[in-house]
Amino acid sequence: MKYIQDSELLEKIIQQYHVEEMFDQTKQLPFTLQQYTPDEIILLEGMEMQSLLFLVEGKVRITSSIATGRSLLLRFIHPFSIIGDIELIRDVPVQSQVQAVNECLLIGLPFDYIKQYEIDNPKFLHTLLEHVCYKLQTCTTASRVNLLASVENKFASYLMSTISAEPNNNFGIELTTSNIKEMANLLGTTYRHLNRVIHSLTQKNIIERDKNSIRILNWDDLDKASNGIRYK
Amino acid sequence: MKYIQDSELLEKIIQQYHVEEMFDQTKQLPFTLQQYTPDEIILLEGMEMQSLLFLVEGKVRITSSIATGRSLLLRFIHPFSIIGDIELIRDVPVQSQVQAVNECLLIGLPFDYIKQYEIDNPKFLHTLLEHVCYKLQTCTTASRVNLLASVENKFASYLMSTISAEPNNNFGIELTTSNIKEMANLLGTTYRHLNRVIHSLTQKNIIERDKNSIRILNWDDLDKASNGIRYK
DNA sequence: TAATGAAAAGGACATATGTCCCAAAAAGGA
DNA sequence: TCCTTTTTGGGACATATGTCCTTTTCATTA
C-alpha cells in the first residue's frame, strides 16, 4: 500500500463522488489517499480496523475464511463502496478478507475522527445505512444463490468477473494457471474438482487452456454456463 | 393478526425494551400492538411494507423463496428485533417471508410517520444501523455455514430450534408429520431426502417417529448431529 | 544427460443429494 | 365393507463433489 500525497486528486475524487455531502464540515477532513497494487491484501480477517475506507477506483474481492483453511468468495465491490461499516458500528475486528483485484484507490477516514465528529450526523448515518442495507440485501441473495449454483456456474461467473476487470482485453484473455488452487478456494471447492470443471469447459470449447493461461473462446456460452450467477 | 388495544401493556413493553430512548418525542408515537398466532404469516415476499415492526414477544422465522417454488430458511429472530429495516431504507418491497413460530407480539410504527419525524434522528438511525449490521454479520456467517452444513446438520439444528420454542416440553416433544414437506423446503432440500435423513436419525435412536409426531429421544446426540449449526 | 524430487493432473471410489417412479397406506365414497 | 383415489414412503438410479492416491510433467542437481 502506498499513501498518495496529492490533494488535488483527492479533491477531484471527493467532488466526483459527492463525498463532502456526506459530512458536516466539508473541509479539512483527515482523509488519506491509498493506492494498492493488483492482488495486494487490503484487510486481513481479525485485525483491528482503524479507518473507514471508501473504494473510489478499481475492483476489490471480499472473501471469508472457513474452518479448513479454505476461503469463500463473498462478493466483488466497485466504486463507490464503503469498507468497514460493520467494524465501525459494532466495534468488532475485521470480518472478511479484502483484497485488490486490480490497481485500486481508496480513501481512508479514521474511526477516531468519525466517532468524535460525525457519528451523530444524519447524512453520514444515512449513507452508511444505505450501503449496509444494500450489502444485506445482496448477501441474502447470495445465500440463495449458493444453494442453486454449481461449481461450474460459479467458476464461469468468476472468470467473467475477474477477466473483464483486466485492461488488456485485446484478443483473447490470459490468466495464469498458477492460481487455480486459489480460485478453487475462492469458489469453495477443491483443486481436484475445479480441474474437472475446467476440463469440461475446455471440452465444450468454451475456454482454452495451455501451459500458463486460460483463454475464453466463447463468452456467450460461458455466460450460459454461469446460469445467471453474478458476483456483482 | 389481531390488533391489541391495551395502552398499559404497550407502555410496559416500551419501557422494557427502552423503545422511547430510540425516538425523539417519547409520547404519542402512533404505535400499534399486534398479536400473531403460531404459524401465522406476518409478511409475504413482494408486498409493500407500511410499518416498521419490532418483535417484542415470541419467535419468528425468516425465509426466502427461490425459483423452483422452494424456500430457504434464513434465520429465526427473537425479541428485541427490527423487521422492515431494508424496506424502510431502500424503499423496496418485502424481501423475505416472515412467519410466527409461536404466539408473537409485535409493535408497528408507520413508515410515513418515521419518514416525517424520525428519519434524521441519530438515535433512531443508530439503532437501525446496529440491527442491520448485526443481520449482515449473521448473514455472512450463514453463507459460510451453507457451504459446510449437510441436510442432517441443518435438520437437527432446525428441530432443536423449533421444538425448544414449544411450551409443552413435558416428556418428549411432538411435531406433526404433515409439514415434513414444508420443513424440507425450509432446509433447501427435497421431501425425499429429508425422509432419508429422518430415517437415518431414527435408526440411530436420536429421534422417534410415529404416525403424527417426531419425538426427540436424545438431545445430546441431536446436538452433535447439528454439528454446531445454529439458526440463532 | 540421467537421476531425483516437487508440482500438477487425473483415476478410482465414496458420499450427499436430486429425480423419477412405483408400492404401501390412508382416506373417502358407494 | 370393499373399491377407488389421494397421500406418503421408499427403491433405483443419476449427478455433483469430496478424498485418496497414482501417474505424469517439469524442473533441479549431480
From TrEMBL, chains A, B:
One GO cellular component from the entry? cytosol
Specify the domain of life of the species encoding this protein. Answer: Bacteria
Domain HTH crp-type span(s) in chain numbering: 149-220
Instruction: Supply the alphabetized keyword list.
Output: Activator, DNA-binding, Transcription, Transcription regulation
Q: Which PROSITE patterns match?
A: CNMP_BINDING_3 (PS50042), HTH_CRP_2 (PS51063)
Q: Name one GO molecular function term.
A: DNA-binding transcription factor activity
Report domain Cyclic nucleotide-binding positions: 10-109
Q: What is this protein called?
A: Crp/Fnr family transcriptional regulator
Q: Which organism is it from?
A: Peribacillus loiseleuriae
